[in-house]
Structure formats: structure tokens, C-alpha cells
């Protein structure tokens, strides 16, 4: 997108149903929750995009630095910016910046820390919105049915925040929007949930390999220009650790023991390695968030501490440049 916008893109994927997704090839003995939080998140993101387009009002507030007319002018004030300015069929950079896009200068020097949250509810265009919402439905609904809305809400929101923080540490000259930091958090939680509940899964290797391939493909997409892979990585790492903290399943022996007489010995609710992963992950989350936020609000540039990290978000080739202000 013109003006140095960076979209947090993520491709949707399909699920194979057993009693769960392809990563959950296990007989689920627990009652499934009714998914309402994820659909509500989808509605909220769509509603925000409609409001953004209403405020953008391309015909009356033409922000483009390129020549061209608004796209789909029959939509009136909901028409899109010219494709040369925004090929994703969406608002202008100026509108996104005004309404809460992630921008390092405003967060650090103008003390607008709220942008770390609001940017995750903005989208660069219809294409960006649809890809993220489809991914949220495919991943989020199944997780919410298995683990309930409270835990999935915590993972979604904290992962989105973590993605924003990492983006702000490494991206200085562009704005960034999108929910894919939160979506990658759900992918990370799926992976850690599979690991921490390893002993109660069937077809473990196939499920793990499938999930790792999906994650690798989505992260690889992030090395394209104008895609904020820092948000993907930050969200994924936070979700991965949160999965160990929030998504361990009790042993079957413990579940079955609840129906036995109290005189019968009952196994521990969780295995020792689950407790260990819980403690280590919680410590890493606290330390990671603390260090990242201190660095951010001190105005430090993450690239000064990691001279190769810029390749995580964009790899230059003969076909494109990684200039953050590239059109």
C-alpha cells in the first residue's frame, strides 16, 4: 500500500473434522463450548472497517498522491482509494493513521500507546479483511469450542498486543494495521497445545507436521514487501507460550478418577512436564513483555540490537525492494 503502509496479511486454511481440526486427532471426552466470541470478533472487525470507510469518504477527502479516481464510486463515501494508492480496496494511509494505525513516532514521542491495541482492529482493505476473517473463523471457532471463550479471548488479545509491540520495535518509517498478529497467536497456541497434550493425541507426528507446514508457509509469506512479519512473529511467540499456560488438558486417568470413590487413589491432574512448561512459559511471557515495553518506550530501535532481523520481515530480491516507503 502506498505511503509505506504495512498490512499484516495471513492466508486462511481449511480444517479436517474428526471431533476437531486436523491438528486435534483425538477423541474429545469433554463437552464442547458454543462459539460466540470469535463470530463477535469477526462482526466487530467488519463494523470497524465500515466505519473507517465512512470516515475515509474518498470522493470528498481525496488523500492519494497519485492520479486516478476513487474505485467503485457508486458506493459514494464508501468507495475505495485508487488502486495505485491502495491495491487492497480500502481507505487511505492518512485515514488509517488518523484512526489508530501503528506508528512508532506517535507511540514513543507523542505518547499514543493506545495505538498498540487499535491497530489490530484496523485493516488495509477488503482483501486484507476477508483473508484475516476467514482465517479467524477456521482457527478460532474450533479452539473456542474446545477451550471456551475466556482462554481464547486472552490468547487473541495478548497475541495481538505482542505483535504490535514487536512491530513498533523494528518498524520506524511505516504504519501497520491488521489482526494477523492475534491470528498467528492462535496458530502458536495450537502448536503448544499439541505439544503439552502430546500423550493423549493419536497420529501425533502427522498432526505436528501438518501444523508446522501451515505455520512455515504463513511466516514465509511475511517476507514479502509491505507485509508486517514482525507482527506475525510477535503474535506467534506470545500465543505459543500462552498455549502452554492456558491450554493444558488433564490426564484421562484424572478425569476418570473423578467418578471413583474417594478411597481410590487418583492420578495427578497434569503431568510433570505440563507443570514445567507452564512455569517456564509464564516466566518467559512476563520477562518478554517487560523487556520489550521498556525498550519501546525508551525509544530504542530493535534493529540496533539485531542487525539481521530486518530479513525476518522482508528479503530483497531482483523483483522488489525492501524500502519501507516503497510504493
From TrEMBL:
Alphabetical list of InterPro entries matching this protein: Peptidase_S54_rhomboid-like, Peptidase_S54_rhomboid_dom, Rhomboid-like_sf
GO biological process, one term: proteolysis
UniProt cross-references to Pfam families, sorted A to Z: Rhomboid
GO cellular component terms, semicolon-separated: Golgi apparatus; membrane
Protein's cellular compartments: Membrane
EC number: 3.4.21.105
Keywords from the UniProt entry: Hydrolase, Membrane, Protease, Serine protease, Transmembrane, Transmembrane helix
SUPFAM superfamilies the record matches: Rhomboid-like
Keyword flag Membrane: yes
Membrane topology, as annotated: Multi-pass membrane protein
Any one Gene Ontology molecular-function term assigned to this protein's record: serine-type endopeptidase activity
Reaction equations catalysed: Cleaves type-1 transmembrane domains using a catalytic dyad composed of serine and histidine that are contributed by different transmembrane domains
Transmembrane segments: 36-55, 120-141, 148-171, 177-198, 205-224, 230-247, 275-297
Family: Belongs to the peptidase S54 family.
Physiological role: Serine protease involved in intramembrane proteolysis.
Protein name: RHOMBOID-like protein
Organism, as annotated: Jatropha curcas (Barbados nut)
Lineage of origin: Eukaryota, Viridiplantae, Streptophyta, Embryophyta, Tracheophyta
